[in-house]
Design a protein that fits this description.
Length: 311
Amino acid sequence: MRWSKRGRIFNVDGSLPWMTHHAAVPVPDLLDDSRLRVYFGPRDSEGRTRVGFLETAPDDPANIQHVHEQPALGLGKLGAFDDSGVTPSCVVDVGDEKHLYYMGWNRGVTVPYRISIGLAVSTDGGVTFIRAHDGPILDRSPDDPYFVTTPFVLRDGGTWRMWYAAATSWGEVAGQPEPVYEIRHAESDDGVTWRRDGLACIAPTSVTEAYARPWVQRDSGGYRMWYCYRRNLDYRTDPANSYRLGYAESGDGMSWVRKDEQVGIERSETGWDSQMIEYPAVYEHRGARHLLYNGDGFGESGIGHAVLEAG
């Protein structure tokens, strides 16, 4: 597997007050043969995230047709799990509706933040979303005691399946609390109430490794997962410890074999994605497989595009 980078396709220009900086966690939604919608999480001047989107050409996402000027989903109610930010993670078509699984943020005291997973539903084709509940559909629990984040949901036959990141601990690094997390699996009959077992899907290479934002595809050969991983020491400033992309395969979607050496894409030597690459999302169009991802600064430098090379 080898990806051909096509460059950065979008970066926030600060022209809208709710979209001051960052374009984090791109979520592609192929609307038709000529339109790709990409949801993402921009931040305002206070660092709060809402759900924005742009529309572009599926074969050439740099050819942006429209950037929507209003949030598709705004902040939650005061005191709710998502009153400090909402970040998109995946969209699932359910009949005529679109179901958005997203991360809800609360500001913390002893640690910087707490994250839970929410669900919002659109009946207008994904332009606007309404919360299915004021509370999260996945939160801290005996199995996941710290936080849960970056869900990917797949309707797999009669079962809903979710792969998500769960924090396993917070630790102090250079005087600051930093989390470590791993990818876990849950199942549901309705996409709302989830069963989880607290087991890791992918084994970390060390106790300081954190990996997140799974993106899963199923084909005749089984399941494929793209994700990102980092160390917890100096990952914000040292490229050697910062985010890069990983890849894994599975026969059942629960036990995975890491094949990071086959991921086929690395950080650039210079430029917008030379410090880190993270938050992968994959879509297919006209027989080609496309990758969207973030670069430096956890999405601060924008969204990039790559195409899988033939053979």
